[in-house]
């Protein structure tokens, strides 16, 4: 996995894979919990991911840089989950691999682990119902509270814009809840302007 040149200082921005489905659901749940803390569960989000997540709707993750530097990730693996060998299978395949290689079922301290994402971006496609043109859509942008105000959201927005420009999109859109003033200020800073208004009325 290549580190994006848009990575914020002290962090690494990586493109995710379709194997990150469970992690995406988790980040969507974090997003909605932060906006609606009075609600305890969002079971429908799994169906949302099932319906819309594919190779056409890419992910980007942000992880803290480690003091050891950033290892090269195997393209067939998601870089955001612990890589372990609890059954000692590596030693069975190659007897020359021993405890010093980090694959020893009796020494958990030597298991190879990777930092977990603290921010994520999910992009997809939408069709402008006025012009019929396809354009990019930001489905999710989330940063853990402890890592906010460090330029991470800005880097993710820049990544979203770059993705759209590279595809030849003429615009990119998103939806934001009206009470999420912090997010609205960020989007306005990037030149987003209101295009439509969703109105609701309770029937209960």
TrEMBL record:
Residues 30-204 form the N-acetyltransferase domain. SUPFAM superfamilies: Acyl-CoA N-acyltransferases (Nat). InterPro entries: Acyl_CoA_acyltransferase, GNAT_dom, YpeA/RimI_acetyltransf. Keywords: Acyltransferase, Transferase. One of its GO terms (molecular function) is acyltransferase activity, transferring groups other than amino-acyl groups. This is Slr0517 protein. It comes from Synechocystis sp. (strain ATCC 27184 / PCC 6803 / Kazusa). The lineage of its organism: Bacteria, Bacillati, Cyanobacteriota, Cyanophyceae, Synechococcales.
């Amino acid at each position: 996995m290549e580190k994006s040149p848009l990575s914020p200082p002290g962090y690494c921005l990586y493109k995710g894979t379709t194997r990150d489905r469970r992690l995406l659901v988790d980040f969507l749940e974090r997003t909605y919990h932060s906006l609606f803390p009075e609600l305890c569960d969002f079971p429908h989000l799994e169906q949302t991911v099932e319906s819309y997540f594919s190779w056409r709707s890419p992910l980007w993750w942000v992880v803290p840089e480690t003091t050891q530097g950033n290892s090269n990730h195997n393209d067939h693996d998601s870089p955001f989950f612990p890589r372990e060998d609890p059954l000692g299978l590596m030693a069975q395949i190659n007897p020359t691999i021993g405890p010093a290689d980090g694959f020893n079922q009796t020494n958990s301290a030597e298991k190879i682990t990777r930092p977990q994402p603290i921010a994520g971006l999910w992009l997809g496609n939408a069709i402008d119902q006025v012009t019929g043109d396809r354009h990019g859509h930001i489905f999710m942008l989330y940063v853990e509270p402890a890592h906010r105000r460090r330029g991470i959201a800005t880097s993710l927005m820049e990544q979203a814009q770059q993705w759209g420009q590279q595809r030849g999109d003429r615009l990119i859109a998103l939806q934001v809840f009206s009470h999420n003033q912090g997010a609205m200020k960020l989007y306005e800073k990037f030149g987003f302007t209101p295009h439509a208004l969703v109105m609701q009325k309770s029937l209960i």
